[in-house]
Specification:
It is a single chain. By secondary structure, the chain is mostly helical. The protein has 4 helices and no strands.
Length: about 90
C-alpha cells in the first residue's frame, strides 16, 4: 500500500508541476484523486485501481515528462496481481 500511495502522490506532484496544459489533464487529475482514495483503503478495489490507471495513462498520453510517474504507478498497481488477460 505504501508503494501505491507513494506512486500516486509522485505522479500528482509531477502533473501539478507540468507547465504545459493538455486536453485531458482534468481527467488525469480526477483519476489520480480516485486512486488516492482507493489507496487510502487497506483493501483497495483492484479492478478500480486498474480502471483508474488506464484512464490516467490514456489521459496523459504521450507526455514524455510524465512517463516515469505513470510507469511507477503501473508497477505499484501490478503488485496487487497480474492484469487479467481476455
Amino acid at each position: 500500500m505504501t508503494g501505491l500511495r507513494s506512486a500516486v502522490a509522485r505522479l500528482r506532484r509531477l502533473l501539478a508541476a507540468h507547465p504545459v496544459e493538455f486536453r485531458d489533464r482534468g481527467v488525469a487529475e480526477e483519476e489520480l484523486a480516485t486512486l488516492a482514495d482507493l489507496a487510502a483503503d487497506d483493501h483497495p478495489d483492484v479492478p478500480g485501481l486498474r480502471r483508474s490507471l488506464l484512464l490516467v495513462a490514456g489521459a496523459i498520453g504521450s507526455v514524455s515528462a510524465l512517463g516515469p510517474g505513470v510507469r511507477e504507478l503501473r508497477e505499484a498497481v501490478d503488485l496487487f496481481g497480474p492484469s487479467p488477460r481476455g
